[in-house]
Write a structure and sequence with these properties.
The protein has 226 residues and is α+β, with helices and mostly antiparallel strands. The chain has a domain of 82 residues: 2-Layer Sandwich (Hypothetical Protein, Haloacid Dehalogenase-like Hydrolase, Chain: A, domain 2). Helix content is 30%, strand content 20%. It contains 8 helices and 11 strands. A 5-stranded antiparallel β-sheet has the order 5-4-6-8-7. Strand 4 and strand 5 form a beta hairpin. The longest helix has 12 residues. The protein starts with 8 loop residues before the first helix and ends with a helix.
Length: 226
């Protein structure tokens, strides 16, 4: 039988190190991941920094986008995006009308090429909200353009978590793989990009880990957190 690596998260969390996820995903999508990793007792940045999930599983530090502004943002973008997404009440939906009676935290415009990404960014440059560009999960040459409250970013949300935990920037290790993790790096003392990360992020990193399919996260833990 091949040697199996023992899980490292339980041992780490029993000590002084906390593992926090920092993602564009909503809590509904994260529940299973959080439970499997055994990191329920930590803070997690969700919805691109628009919310923080506390150790009790409750959402706090919520920064939303008023529905009238959501509609205005969509109108400004016009027919340039090749797909839309709206994070409403902790769930990703495709119909803007779902935001009428709910809390909208993120607007996502989809592009299938770098040319289209540039067109979208040019079209929405007048929008007075925070704009971040993430890699498309299914289309390598495409992007998600994520729009959040001006006070919502992975950097600002991480700083909120640092204050809650009583830790400093120098005590924080950030691991990322997408361009929208650059703000996350800005609040971290040690910045590590995954081997499969976008080149823009690698250029900002202090170190580059193996790719995700080569246990890059385990490599980060063994090298820096043991």
């Amino acid at each position: 039988m091949a040697n199996q690596r023992k899980p490292l998260f339980p041992r780490i969390i029993k000590g002084k190190i906390k593992i926090s996820l920092c993602t564009g995903r909503a809590y509904v999508d994260l529940k299973q991941i959080i439970n499997v990793l055994g990191i329920n007792n930590s803070y997690h940045v969700i919805e691109s920094g628009a919310k923080v999930l506390n150790p009790e599983g409750k959402e706090e530090n919520i920064k939303d986008i008023p529905f009238k502004d959501v509609k205005n943002i969509v109108n400004i973008a016009g027919d340039t995006p090749q797909g839309y997404g709206f994070c409403v009440d902790g769930k990703w939906v495709e119909d803007i009308e779902n935001g009428k009676k709910g809390v909208v935290t993120t607007v996502s415009f989809h592009s299938h090429s770098q040319k289209k990404t540039k067109e979208i960014l040019e079209r929405i440059k007048s929008v007075k909200y925070y704009v971040a560009v993430g890699s498309h999960w299914e289309i390598p040459e495409g992007n998600f353009i994520l729009i959040t409250n001006p006070e919502a970013s992975k950097k600002l949300a991480l700083e909120y978590v640092q204050e809650k935990l009583g830790i400093t920037k120098q005590e924080t290790v950030a691991v990322g793989d997408m361009p929208n993790d650059i703000p996350l790096f800005e609040a971290s003392g040690l910045k590590i990009a995954m081997g499969n990360a976008d080149q823009k992020l690698k250029d900002k990193a202090d170190d580059v880990a193996p790719s995700i399919d080569k246990d890059g996260v385990v490599w980060v833990i063994e090298k820096n957190l043991k």
